[in-house]
Design a protein that fits this description.
alpha+beta; Ubiquitin-like (UB roll); Translation Initiation Factor IF3; two-stranded antiparallel ribbon; 4 helices; 6 strands; about 45% helix; rod-shaped
Length: about 140
């Protein structure tokens, strides 16, 4: 089609004539609404950026006391599982209060109990050994 005919068609429809491949013989052009095309392109790029951000795993923190009841612990474990299923890493912190610091082995037992309950339904990897930082015993968990 001649360039004049293509320009006439574009003017008739109220859209733009955009050159796709200018090096070709004859040049390749497309009849599109340039504003709409730019808008769709911008939306697609934003969507891709959002997906890229979602793929990065976050570090979530779950705090647990030594005197937590079984039901409350089950709720916390369920929440940790949901974080792991979303692809996030979870830092579990056992918080010691007052004289509980004299019984650090209870904190280790609590961490083991949490890890066992989580690993019943979800394959997990424990990153490193449990570490004391002040009055907290913490451990990082991620999905296998």
């Amino acid at each position: 089609m001649s360039s004049r005919d293509a320009q006439a068609i574009a003017r008739e429809q109220g859209v733009d004539l955009v050159e796709i491949a200018g090096q070709a013989d004859p040049p390749v052009v497309k009849v599109i609404d340039w504003g709409k095309y730019q808008y769709q392109k911008m939306k697609e790029e934003a969507k891709n950026r959002k997906k890229a951000r979602e793929k990065q795993s976050e570090l979530k923190t779950m705090k647990v006391g030594l005197k937590i009841s079984d039901n409350d612990l089950n709720i916390k474990v369920r929440k940790i599982r949901s974080f792991l299923e979303d692809g996030d890493r979870v830092k579990v912190m056992v918080i010691f209060r007052g004289r509980e610091m004299a019984h650090k082995e209870l904190g280790q037992e609590m961490v083991d109990k949490i890890v066992n309950r989580i690993s019943e339904e979800t394959e997990i990897v424990v990153e490193g050994k449990p570490q004391f930082a002040g009055r907290n015993l913490s451990i990082s968990i991620r999905r296998k």
